[in-house]
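Reviewers of the previous submission asked for a worked example of the structure-prediction workflow described in the proposal, so we include one complete record here. The input consisted solely of the amino acid sequence. No template or homolog information was supplied to the procedure at any stage.
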Amino acid sequence: MHPEVKPALRRGWRDLNTVQFGMTPAHALTVGPVDTATGSFLDLLNGTRGLDLLREEAHRMDLPEGHVDRLVRRLARAGLLDDYRGGGPAAEDLRGRREVLDRLLPDLASLTLTTSEPGGAMARLAARRAMRVQVRGAGRVGATVAALLSGAGVGEVDVRDVGRVEPWDVTPGGLPADAIGERRDEAARRVVRRAAPERPPRRAARSPLDAGDPGRCLVVLAPRDDVRVHAPDPAAAENLLASGTPHLYVGVVEATGVVGPLVLPGETSCAGCLHEDRAARDPSWPRLVAQWRSGGQRRPVPCDVTLATTVAGLAAAHALAFLDGLLPSSAGARWEAALPGLNWHARPVRAHPSCPCGAAGKGKEEHISSEDGRAHETMAVQGPSEACRKADAERPAGTWRAHV
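From that input alone, the workflow returned the following structure tokens.
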């Protein structure tokens, strides 16, 4: 182990004996009492020395025997310590790809703030390279989500859509202006490749039986049709529910951004639950949905470029939290914000007993996470897909699996 006090946290002394790590309420911690010699020794915890060398340095500084080990254990328990060389074989491989890691250093620093175990941040960042995500929909929101996931180090981001790029699809961070007239899916995949910190690995040819994408860690449903954003069609996700593939809904409808729900098949509420719940509360709901769907798609839909980018960023953040083993607050809820106020609020989506997805029987329809992004509960999920087993092998112990 090569201990390193997390450099992402700013350090300051509150008084002569108390040191504060971090500035924001979400991540700041204070440690005390800390004597002057120990305070000076903290500067040596920078990842360049192993424990044996640190013990020698402590001896030269006349620190008591065993002081280094007690200090390291104390800082590690507080979540303030990282392991400069930790994270396992996949992390070591990523360290060997210096240009790739340099692109991802801000992401790594961010992960150290949400990961308590030493070496865990590097392990999670390396595990993303084995992840497979599909984005269905390549409009202003979907294409940007795909680019963000690729840029964050997700190894394979596939985009599915039909038609050709229209002028109103163009957005910063998404489809570029020179893609107008091209096939929408091909243009979006090119955006994904350009955003990736490294060339995506070659994948073996897939059988036609893979149409349900059972090997996907996550599918992001980002329809360009605003009716399908407001009232997701349960039939569109039947193959995902059948294969046990987690999926996240995202989009913009009438200048309102929507992120969620994140569906963990058989565990949390799905689009069918949403439809059943709305129909139970509003008898006119099925009639309205039928009229909206029969009216055809408007072109272009009300989707402000800044709102689309904001929604894409939030959706990608929720997706990454899930892939990293946490349970984001979109599980069992839809986050919504409308222009011009942009006040985000969560609307719970409860598992409905009439929905065949089976989530109501689990009794776990409430999965809202705490403020620091960690799940209130850990669910035992069976049968991870083959495509994600490698990522699981590198995931720190005690995290929620990012697939079913």
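The chain has three domains: 1-82, 86-128, 129-202+210-393. We consider this example representative of the routine output the project will generate in years two and three.
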